[in-house]
């Protein structure tokens, strides 16, 4: 009797397995992957053109770095008059929140998230959270659908990859790269390995003479050579001196030995202050609230050198490990400064006067949702933007918006130059006083590879070209144009590469997008050195 019951149970299980239906495919007109600022603007712009839009966000929150600690439109190093269209509306909405009659270019993360979600809701954009693209189904050059890690399948007519990593693009078989080209590849004077900074007096070896983690030897590098490494990453902590601040927690993987360089520095320079170690920005935040960043010339700062080497092409599991390692580095640094007995008492007291801001990232222990991925993959598309497109050949026959940020690369790696010195390598800081036009072709793949995909964030550019593109306000401009182009391609039943530029130009201008550097006289004399 027992064996019969077991047989029946197995039979039921087998039947249930056989009858299980595959996940149904949901269909939308435009599918945007990545709820970054560029992705949100893409989705809203497309939806306002009357098409059905789905936005897929891998985390629990939309807004990317603008809702994870970057509270600026980068107007200190851009020409404000180049902001236009839907991105300008976003900044105007922020201004209204803060009681201003015009746009504001400085804002708090939670305010930015509320503004982004309002835009999405008003445009009737459907948002799916906590889902990654698992695979892409293509027929010839057309993406048919994507499978998500939450088990859902989504079909679309046009797809937009607005992630910082370009995972949809890569899974669709589109050519891409990462790292730095040599100076010779595109004839760029700013390209490749760069030793432009003064060596720092700090021994890059441990007491046994072994190279410290995160360092490379100088004899392995040549000025101007190509490199597959990308800019260092860090978290943009929001810190506070208010009474409700959250003390810096001790991370589970706390290792004070990671900060050996700092221990040595503080022993020799006990007068060191917190602002010598990390950048603190007060912008126009409420009193006692600060945005933070990696300090370029510090011996040790928020940037975790060497921690992101394999990030651009890593799988999701490895990326999560890199995220956690950066988090442990960041919280460990702040805990060390506030508590370690080797830290001078004045610095410990100063650091303890700060903590994590209580009104930000409230469901994540006041820690940012996104790691600051300054660059990962870059598409190799129909046109590659390089240094000359920013500084010399500034007009384009198919312009879709303007760029104006300085060419800005944070350091890439730490290089031991002697037993007692190291240098941070890879910095670019090239001023721009005039805007330049961005070509539609930098967001379109090669037509032989994919004909219904647009890529406004991991856009087609060299490393040098990307170093001017890589700010949220510019990605939002590209996203705005991508959303409008996607809707137009659907309505005209055309490949994204086959849109008539004059029609696209008219549609963009109708939405208030500034396309030409001859639009007005630019404020090229603006003081951007602050």
Automatic annotation (TrEMBL):
Taxonomy, superkingdom: Bacteria
Keywords, alphabetical: 4Fe-4S, Iron, Iron-sulfur, Metal-binding, Oxidoreductase
Pfam families: FAD_oxidored
GO molecular function annotations of the record: 4 iron, 4 sulfur cluster binding; metal ion binding; oxidoreductase activity
Ion transport recorded as keyword: no
InterPro entries: FAD/NAD-bd_sf, HdrA-like
Matches recorded under SUPFAM superfamilies: FAD/NAD(P)-binding domain
Name assigned to this protein: FAD-dependent oxidoreductase
UniProt lineage: Bacteria, Pseudomonadati, Bacteroidota, Cytophagia, Cytophagales
């Amino acid at each position: 009797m027992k064996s019969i019951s077991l047989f029946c149970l197995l039979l039921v299980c087998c039947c249930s397995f056989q009858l299980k239906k595959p996940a149904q495919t949901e269909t939308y007109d435009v599918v945007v992957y990545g709820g970054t600022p560029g992705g949100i603007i893409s989705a809203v712009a497309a939806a306002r053109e009357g098409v059905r839009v789905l936005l897929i966000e891998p985390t629990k929150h939309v807004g990317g770095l603008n809702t994870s600690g970057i509270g600026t439109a980068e107007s200190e190093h851009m020409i404000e008059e180049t902001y236009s269209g839907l991105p300008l509306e976003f900044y105007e909405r922020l201004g209204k929140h803060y009681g201003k009659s015009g746009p504001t270019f400085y804002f708090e993360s939670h305010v930015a998230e509320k503004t982004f979600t309002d835009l999405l809701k008003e445009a009737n954009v459907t948002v799916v959270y906590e889902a990654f693209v698992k695979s892409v189904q293509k027929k010839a050059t057309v993406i048919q659908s994507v499978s998500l890690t939450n088990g859902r399948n989504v079909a679309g007519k046009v797809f937009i990859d607005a992630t910082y990593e370009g995972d949809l693009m890569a899974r669709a078989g589109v050519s891409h790269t990462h790292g730095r080209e040599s100076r010779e590849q595109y004839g760029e004077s700013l390209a490749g390995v760069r030793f432009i900074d003064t060596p720092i007096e700090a021994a890059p070896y441990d007491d046994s003479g072994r190279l410290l983690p995160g360092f490379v030897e100088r004899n392995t590098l040549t000025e101007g050579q190509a490199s597959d490494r990308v800019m260092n990453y860090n978290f943009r902590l929001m810190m506070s001196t208010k009474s409700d601040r959250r003390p810096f927690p001790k991370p589970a993987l706390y290792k004070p030995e990671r900060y050996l360089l700092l221990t040595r520095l503080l022993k020799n320079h006990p007068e060191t202050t917190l602002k010598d170690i990390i950048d603190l920005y007060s912008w126009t935040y409420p009193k006692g609230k600060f945005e933070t960043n990696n300090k370029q010339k510090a011996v040790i700062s928020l940037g975790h050198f060497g921690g992101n080497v394999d990030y651009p092409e890593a799988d999701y599991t490895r990326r999560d490990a890199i995220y956690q390692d950066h988090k442990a580095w960041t919280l460990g640094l702040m805990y060390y400064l506030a508590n370690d007995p080797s830290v001078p008492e004045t610095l410990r007291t100063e650091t303890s006067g700060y903590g994590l801001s209580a009104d930000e990232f409230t469901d994540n222990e006041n820690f940012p949702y996104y790691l600051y991925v300054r660059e990962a993959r870059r598409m190799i598309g129909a046109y590659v933007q390089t240094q000359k497109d920013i500084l010399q050949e500034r007009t384009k026959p198919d312009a879709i918006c303007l760029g104006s940020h300085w060419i800005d690369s944070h350091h890439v790696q730490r290089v031991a130059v002697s037993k007692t010195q190291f240098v941070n390598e890879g910095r670019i800081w090239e001023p721009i006083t005039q805007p330049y036009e961005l070509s539609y072709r930098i967001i379109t793949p090669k037509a032989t590879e994919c004909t219904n995909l647009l890529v406004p964030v991991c856009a087609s550019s060299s490393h040098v070209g990307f170093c001017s593109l890589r700010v949220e306000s510019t990605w939002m401009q590209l996203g705005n144009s991508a959303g409008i182009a996607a809707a137009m391609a659907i309505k005209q039943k055309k490949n994204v590469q086959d849109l008539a530029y004059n029609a696209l130009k008219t549609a963009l201008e109708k939405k208030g997008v500034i396309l030409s550097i001859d639009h007005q006289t630019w404020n090229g004399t603006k003081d951007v050195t602050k």
